[in-house]
Amino acid sequence: HIRLWALQLIFVTCPSLLVIMHVAYREDRERKNREKNGENCPKLYSNTGKKHGGLWWTYLFSLFFKLIIEILFLYLLHKMWDSFDLPRLVKCTNVDPCPNTVDCYIARPTEKRVFTYFMVGASSICIILTVCEIFYLIFKRVVQRTRKWRKSTKRSVSYSKASTCHCHVKSEEKDSKSQPRCVA
C-alpha cells in the first residue's frame, strides 16, 4: 500500500512540476530579453505566471494527465483488492513450492482497510476537483473567446444608407471621428 501510494503521489506531482518548469522558462526568457534589449524594453509577457497561450495548454494537459493517473491508480487498487476490501484470510493455491492449499493471513487487515478507504476517498475527491477545474478552464476560455468574437463582429458591422434606423449609424460616426487614426 505504501509503495503504491508513494508511486501515485510521484506520478500525480510530475505534471505540476511541468507547469512550474514552463513558468520558470517564461521567467528566464523574460530575463534574457531584458538583458539583451535593456530594462526599458517591452515585456514579452504581462505576467509570466498567468495562464495564457502555451502555459494554459500546459496546465490543461497536466490536469488531464493527473486525472488519468488518479483513475489508473484507483483501477489498480481495485484490481489488487476486490472492491477495495482486504480479507483476513486468503487461500493460496498452486503456489510453488507448496502443492497444497495454504492459508495466508494478512497482518493488520482493519488498519490496511481503513488506509485503503482513505486512499480511495482522497483519490475520488481529487478526481472530482480535477474534472471541475478542467470544465471551469474550458468554460472560461469559451466565454472569453465568445466575448472577443462578439466585440469584433460589432465593429465590423456596417449599415446601409437605406436603413430606417439611423441611431446606430450616428453613434458609429461619432466613435470613428473621436478616435485618432494612424497614418502610415
From TrEMBL:
Residues 69-137 form the Connexin cysteine-rich domain. InterPro entries: Connexin, Connexin_CCC, Connexin_CS, Connexin_N, Connexin_N_sf. Keywords: Cell junction, Cell membrane, Gap junction, Membrane, Transmembrane, Transmembrane helix. Pfam families: Connexin. One of its GO terms (biological process) is cell-cell signaling. PROSITE patterns: CONNEXINS_2. Belongs to the connexin family. One gap junction consists of a cluster of closely packed pairs of transmembrane channels, the connexons, through which materials of low MW diffuse from one cell to a neighboring cell. This is Gap junction protein. It comes from Quiscalus mexicanus.
